[in-house]
Amino acid sequence: MESALKPFRILAYIVGVMLLVLVTCIVLRYGFGIEEPSKVVSPIHGFLYMLYLVAAMNLGMKARWTWPYILGVMLAGTVPLLSFVFERKVTRRVEAELVTATA
């Protein structure tokens, strides 16, 4: 489980930051008519989000979470700032499970 936690945490932060950048690009595109940044950032965010989904699924399967919880963690990458909140929740949950498993 520990081996799956680190990639999840890294990708949760990256996807969270990229989502904030994407929101900024969308505001530039639709609010000010500046389209170029969103054309670059959108596919990068999409690719990184797919990696986040794989990392969340990997961690969820190793931790034996329920499907609704796994899906909730996966969807957290679609709402600005929520991936940061879920990263902390998930990290605390996994660390507590690891302590329980070793005790």
UniProtKB/TrEMBL annotation:
It holds the Pfam family DUF3817. Its main location: membrane. Keywords: Cell membrane, Membrane, Transmembrane, Transmembrane helix. It is found in: Cell membrane. Residues 5-92 form the DUF3817 domain. The chain crosses the membrane at residues 12-32, 44-61, 67-86. The keyword Membrane applies. It is a multi-pass membrane protein. PANTHER family: MEMBRANE PROTEIN (PTHR40077:SF2), MEMBRANE PROTEIN-RELATED (PTHR40077). This is DUF3817 domain-containing protein. It comes from Streptosporangium amethystogenes subsp. fukuiense.
